[in-house]
Amino acid sequence: MDKFNFNNRPNAARIELTKNSALSDIDTEVVLQFLNFQWAYRGMQRQYDAVLTQHHLTESRFIILMFLSEATDQQLLPSEIADQLGATRATVSKLLRGMAADGWVQKRASETDKRATYMQLTPTGKATLDAFLPANFAAVKTLFGQLTPDELKTFASLLNKINQGTSNLKTEMES
Asked: Residues 6 or more apart from 143 whose CB is under 8 A from it?
């Protein structure tokens, strides 16, 4: 059997052979569009990651800077950041240590609970965020700017359906 990589995506004929051997009744067009969506997303994410890298950011670090910039007193508990980010506390702790080493955040003791330590956005972190935001919006405009308002509404509707399918798959896998 031939070996294929992601750059050699299957065509309809290859999908048809594979689905027949797997005894699946899935519509070949569904599989093709799933692969096209994955391909487009991965390419878009690679390019967006390159924009982030130019500013010495990762997506998670950028999101944390945004959370902190919008928070009261520009500070949050690490557990709040983890919950908002949808990441483990260990992962967020590692991210925050790196961001503190870069001077973007600093620890701040709670004035009301001596056990609690907040992470606060520093002026350097705010400057990093402010310097990145124009590049962020320019990248988003380049990626999505050619879509008309009607196409954006259709796209939003389709994404909602994909999100529902993702939720359904999660439920199926948990049962």
From this structure: 44, 47, 48
**Per-residue tokens: 128:** 């990093």
Q: How far apart are CA 111 and CA 132, in angstroms?
A: 32
Name residues whose C-beta falls within 8 Å of residue 44's C-beta, 6 or more positions apart in sequence. 143
Q: Is the dihedral of CA 68, 71, 75, 79 positive or negative?
A: negative
Each residue's pLDDT tens digit, 28-77: 899 999 999 999 999 999 999 999 999 999 999 999 999 999 999 999 99
Q: Give me the pLDDT at residue 6, please.
A: 55
Per DSSP, the residues of 89-104 read HHHHHHHHHHHHHTTS
For residues 165 and 172, give the distance between their C-alpha atoms in angstroms, rounded to a whole number.
Answer: 10
Q: Is 109 helix (H, G, I), strand (E, B) or coil?
A: strand
- Please state the domain extents for the chain: 8-54, 59-130
Please tell me the number of Cα atoms within 13 Å of 163 on its side-chain side. Answer: 6
Name the CATH topology of 59-130: Arc Repressor Mutant, subunit A (1.10.10)
Separation between Cα atoms, residue 108 and residue 105, nearest integer Å = 9
Q: What is the pTM of this model?
A: 0.84
Residue pLDDT, tens place only, 123-147:
999 999 999 999 999 999 999 999 9
Sheet holding 105-109, edge to edge: 75-76, 117-121, 105-109
